[in-house]
Write a structure and sequence with these properties.
6PGD_dom2; 2 domains; N-(1-d-carboxylethyl)-l-norvaline Dehydrogenase, domain 2; 6-stranded parallel β-sheet; NAD binding; Rossmann fold; 6-phosphogluconate dehydrogenase; 3-stranded mixed β-sheet; 15 helices
Length: 287
Amino acid sequence: MIGFIGIGLMGSRMAGRLLDAGNDLVIYNRTQSKMQPLIEKGAKGASSPKEVGSQADIVFTMLADPKAVDAVAYGEQGLLVGMKPGSLWIDSSTISPTQSVQLAKRAHEKKIRFLDAPVAGSTGPAEKGELLFFVGGDAADLEEVRPLLNVMGKAVHHKGANGAGTAMKLVNNLMLGQSVAAFAEAVAFGESLGLDKEGVIQSLFAGPTAAPILHFKENKMLKEDFENADFKVNSIYKDMELASEEAYGHGFALPLSNLVKAFYGLCQQQGKGDYDFATIYDLLKKH
């Protein structure tokens, strides 16, 4: 039996892939109603993280933020109370490497194995099983769970010991936030010079500077449809803040990242925290 905790935008699609592949699944989500579509497809619902842990040999967690991960892990109804010795916990949440190492330590004290395995990719790749997993932890544990990761993703990068997976995720999302902000500013600048927006985007894509993520944001930018989020402002701001905190702890400066992060913070202040993070274009353009 496989457990999955966190049936949100990403988790629902990842768990759905596991279910469609024929795996027996027990699931938990704080908002119970979000579990219903998967239960109707054959998943078993649980009333607590502890209940998931007591039934599953392998448990995935995909949660919104560090506080949510701690809330699921600890306490009388926590995952670590329910999981059996020898079972394997894979956390795909985006948290700090420091927190991942602490979770691994607490799990190992209970003879529970732990991998940090956050993902690159938003809802579209999650739906298609095209995520990229960054994994930290024991190589043998990774090989055991690799077939399941391959159901949900297109590639698995083992980065080293516990914490290395989440470290790579922060590196990835730091660049992600900057790339979309730079794209938004360039498009908005082109428009301010009297250029056609669609033409600007086509010319940028024809050149050497357009990363793959920008193609995913083309329609968002053209239609200015930011309310239907693939990846929220709140999420990219949180990830860049985690990177900033981790950098501070290691005596490393992130001048570009911290400036871009502040712009996403302004989007939040405008009440757009739940919008797609490409809404930074709307903040930057000349109205």
